[in-house]
Amino acid sequence: MKYLKLSKEVKLFITVIFLFGLTSSAFNGFLGIYVKEVGYNEAVVGGLLSLRRFSVAGSAIVMALVASRFGRRNALAFGLTTIGLSAILMVSTKNIWLMRFFCITSGIGQSTLMTFEAPFLFSKTNEETRMHAFSASFSARNAAFMTGSLITGLLADVFGTIFLADYLGVRYALYIVSLSSLIALIPLYLIKGEKTRNEQKIEFSKIKEVYSIKLVKMLSYTMIIGFGAGMIVPFFGIYLKYMLDLSDSGVGSILAIAQLGTVLGGLTVPYLMGRFGRYQLVTILQMGSIPFLILIGVPMNIVLVSLAFFFRSSLMNMAQPILQNLYMELADDTYRPLVSSLRSTTNNLARAFGILLGGFMMEHISYSSPYAVTILCYLVGTILFRNIFKKEKLKEKELLISG
């Protein structure tokens, strides 16, 4: 298997991604529940969650510029430390202003991982193993999301019973899972450090050089999909707990089940590409997720909800390794972190605005109302993607037929 041929550095980095993913999954699924349990409404939750996205968006390009001078490993170490400490401090208070502050610092830390993951994997692999590296990293992150969601939900129920308060249960569960970001520093420092050469430094005045018509179109696609995702994904935990009246462990179990399909699906991406081609595969996966998104938005029994979450998460997210690779092909090695940061900035800004609108609609209309907007965004975004790579898709189809 080509997964076994990945270098030691890539495997260590994938371990870092997994440990970071544990903290990320816990907060994606349960921070909103914690905020609700300490007395705030859905609009406040949406504002808080969007603030972290705004922070990621605002700091991604800056981190790319700084890291070109001080090294990517140092930037990642700063990011992991900031994420771990911010996560712990964020749930140590009920004060909304302090939570907002730590959301901002957490976003700054998170931007380093989102900016440097794709460039690192691209630079440490060849054409033969590259797609497998992206798929392995993607699956490791989602395996962490699955594990983190399950563990956090179970711990929250246990601690909630011990301390006789649901918010304390979630708080102490998040304390424990947050430590994984700090533990991730160990495999990070086992990776051989990269020397910072003058030619690798990114000058702010040269940012415009990375822009192309195709990059702008890809960023537009990312913005549309990100806005749609922002309206619903951060609220999945709240939707399950308060719409379906589930326990914290029940919420964690369903979120974990959803990620299991994404993990398994991510590992099959290189093989599916050989059958359908990468451009056609992205279209098939994203369009295929929409029926299950409709099912999630319609109140039903827990079994159907679990199945809908499983297939929606699997299909929509399986395209990510391909999209990461496509973005990296738009620039040379020096400017790949910048392209990655532009993607991260666009995605997080769009998600932040989506979160604000999603929280508003859930509070003033219904928990299921944002799903209609998300479905429209996914349709428009997928059609745009097909148009961007229309010529490449035809060439790829001819190669698949002749091969």
Q: What's the overall geometry?
A: globular
Helix content: over 70%
Domain count, please report it: 1
Percentage of residues in strands: under 5%
Number of DSSP-assigned strands: 0
Name the structural class.
Answer: mainly alpha
CATH class category name: Mainly Alpha
In angstroms, what separates the terminal alpha carbons? 21 Å
Count of helix runs: 16
Main pleated sheet: none
Radius of gyration: 20 Å
CATH superfamily: MFS general substrate transporter like domains
Task: Give a short synopsis of this structure.
By secondary structure, the protein is mainly α. The chain is 81% helix and 0% strand.
Account of the 3D structure:
The protein has 403 residues and is mainly α. The chain has a single domain (2-188, 208-402), classed as Growth Hormone, Chain: A (Up-down Bundle). 81% of the residues lie in helices and 0% in strands. The chain contains 16 helices and no strands. Helix 5 (130-163) packs antiparallel against helix 6, helix 8 (213-232) packs parallel to helix 14 and helix 11 (278-297) packs antiparallel against helix 12. The protein starts with 7 loop residues before the first helix and ends with a helix.
